Amino acid sequence: MTQLQDASDEPRDAGAAERLRALQILSEITSTLPGESGIEEWLGRVLATMVRLAGAAAGAVRVLSADGRELRLLASEGLPPEVVARERLMPVDCGPCGLAVRDAASQEEPAWSTCARLTATTWFGGLGRMIAVPLVNGGRVLGTYNLFLRDARPIPEEVALLYRSMGEHLGMALENARLARENLRMRVTSERQMIAAEVHDSLAQSLAYMKMRVALLLESLRSADTERSLRYAGDLQRALGEAYADLRELLAQFRSRMDPLGLVHALEGLAAGFEDATGVALTLENRLAGALNLTADEEANAFHVVQEALANVARHSGARHARVTLATRDGDYEFTVEDDGVGFFALGNPPGAEDALAPRHRLGVGIMRERAGRLAGRLEIANLPGRGARVRLAFPVDPAARAATP
How much is the average pLDDT of 148-165? Predict the structure, then answer.
């Protein structure tokens, strides 16, 4: 009687052990997500965990190609090199894997049947069963994962349900990795466009100005007009110096990342070394009630507007003192740079007449306006009563209002 009882309990105990292993696998893989090492390395680690806890001989993760006609081997664990070489790219209608993709449902079959026939290897002969589980995200099948099991017994339904849950988790990770790659691609494209725009707005226009001056210089030299030649040569010398300053500033901006401690900390660092570098005493007044709610890109744009405004103070104003004020007013963040110099329109040009300013000064204003536009904001420039100038950047506190900018 005892022997009969022990025999009847054996399958039940084996099923309980298998369910426990499946739960362990699910617990371990759901506790992690792909990190900086990338999706393929993460899948390899997860697959190794699944193979170990399921007591399987091997495992594989396959993803659909862009045209949906093939399955590409993305990660494997325990498969011999000759099998990996033959299964790197398989047709989507390949046995149980193809059925799992087509029907979005798990498939089982003896491990030695389809895989052994397609790879023409004997390795599968010693195995009992292979399962193919679809990787699903948002109702869309992205691929499959396989476990090659030593046991030939069918998988209990509750264990199969856990395996499907694993497939959904892996599918979510694959989709997140795709979105991360797409986001990175968009950011790289945006950065390239920004670099191109800034080079165009500074170096390209300075070079165009110098090209025109060279033509005039040559003409004056041919006519032996010494006075005009000296004037054009002086223009070229100044423009070349400004172009060189542009280049150094652009390189400094592109090499440096936004301070990881945030915009306010970055501005404090800028203010701390400003007097030593320029001879202009700088005060920073932070009147903000709380932390800034800005993305890294938004912080970078705001920082570079203030940085360019302060560069103008150092280069053109002749000021002895300057002040940067951070505040909020009427639903806007306001970043204001004021100085006690000769005024922004020192030659008597009215506000809005930036075209009449020196080339470097005018180009700096254009770059600041472009950055303000990226923040759905505006740039205000004015002379102060009596002496000095003010540059103010204002943009919405509400992130939704900033995000609505084309």
Answer: 80
Number of domains in the chain: 2
Indicate the residue among 149, 181, 213 that finishes a domain: 181
Is residue 215 in some structural domain?
A: no
Assess if residue 236 is contained within a domain. Answer: no
Q: Does one domain contain both 162 and 23?
A: yes
148 contacts 59 by C-beta, under 8 angstroms: yes
Same structural domain for residues 170 and 273? no
Q: Identify the three-state secondary structure at position 335.
A: strand
pLDDT exceeds cutoff 80 at 147: yes
User: Where does a domain end: 155, 181, 207?
Assistant: 181
C-alpha separations of 146 from 34, 106, 197, 371, 396 in Å: 20, 10, 49, 50, 51
Give the pLDDT of residue 20.
67
Beta bridge partners of 389: 339, 383
Distance, in Å, from the CA atom of 114 to the CA atom of 127, rounded to the nearest integer, reads 13
Cβ atoms of 109 and 149 closer than 8 Å: no
Rounded CA gap, 294 and 277, in Å?
29
**Burial class, 76, CB count within 10 angstroms (exposed 0-12 / middle 13-18 / buried 19+):** buried
Is residue 6 domain-resident?
A: yes
Residues 292 and 404 in one domain: yes
Pairing assessment for the beta strands 140-149 and 321-329 based on DSSP bridges: unpaired
Q: Does 135 lie in the same domain as 42?
A: yes
Residues 63 and 171 grouped into a single domain: yes
Q: Transcribe 201-229 into DSSP letters.
A: IIIIHHHHHHHHHHHHHHHHHHTT-HHHH
pLDDT in tens, 200-211: 666 776 787 888
Do 37 and 177 share a structural domain? yes
Q: Which helix (H) or strand (E) holds 338?
A: strand 332-339
Of 42-46, 85-89, 304-308, the least confident: 42-46
The pairing of beta strand 321-329 with beta strand 281-286? parallel
The two structure tokens encoding residue 180: 């991360």
Q: Look at residue 134 in the predicted model and tell me its pLDDT.
A: 93
Q: What share of the chain is helix, strand, coil (3-state, %, to 5)?
A: 55, 20, 25
What CATH number does residue 124 fall under? 3.30.450.40
Domain around 134:
2-181
Each residue of 203-244: pLDDT tens digit? Answer: 776 787 888 889 999 999 999 999 999 998 998 888 888 788
For residues 354-381, give the mean pLDDT. 73
